[in-house]
Amino acid sequence: MKASALAVVGAFVLSLAAAIPALAQSRLDEIIKRDKLIVATFSTAPPLCFTDEKGELVGFDIDIARLIAKGLLGDPNKIEFVTVTSEGRWPSVLSGRADIGLAATTVYPDRAARVAFSYPYMDSGLSVLVRKDAGVKSVADLNNEKFTLANLSNPQMADRAKRFLPKMKVLTFDTPSAMFLAVKSGQAQAMQMDTPVIDHYAANNADLMALPELLGNVQNNAVFMKPGDFTLWLYISTVVQELRSGSRYSEYTEVFRKWFGRNPPPQRFYTAAAPN
Prior knowledge:
This protein is of the alpha/beta class. The chain has helices spanning about 1-25, 25-35, 60-75, 90-95, 110, 140, 155-165, 175-185, 195-205, 230-245, 250-260, and strands at about 35-40, 45, 50, 55-60, 80-85, 100, 115-125, 125-130, 150, 170-175, 190-195, 210, 220-225.
């Protein structure tokens, strides 16, 4: 019996030892070995992630992804982008097709049950873009059965439409650019989307405007990835934290100014000493 017990214990120890390397493996190790970061993103949400006139992916999210690649692999160009739709974001990382995702993505509890979110890389809100010829000045003015709202195909937008604009008709689309085209063509009179996207469309289209109110509270945009990989999550969150408020804040500021035309939120209450 003693020998049998020792054999069982020995087998358990061997199986545990065999499992430790497998448990220690992280997607981060794979990225470093591959020498390339694969990122899921949109191609239709300016100024965060979109295709420019040259057919190249550009935007704030794209530049943040390149800063992550630069820190990890020493080169911002050691990166591959996989373009996805709104609902295609989650399968892209859950299936392993992409390492991480940066796609104008706000953090919600139900989403956090499906994917892991890093610390936020930017603050955002949800705003409404309207046609000027609709003659509305507020969300209350827009809440009318004669108007149509363009939504993305996700439950958060459906919930906001019911809460803030319950009288409006709703059309659902797969991409922000399809929503914008619906508003531009008059198929819809308004669309809801992340505030930076709405501000961009309003600034570049004289026939459109952004309503002054946010739909709800200020929210967080974050990098998302497959759950269960603490090593990768910790690395991405550390980089994001250093970009927003630490050693890489100057790089973050440069990218923020480039796409939003203003400085990001202050770094922290400690600041460099003013020159005498």
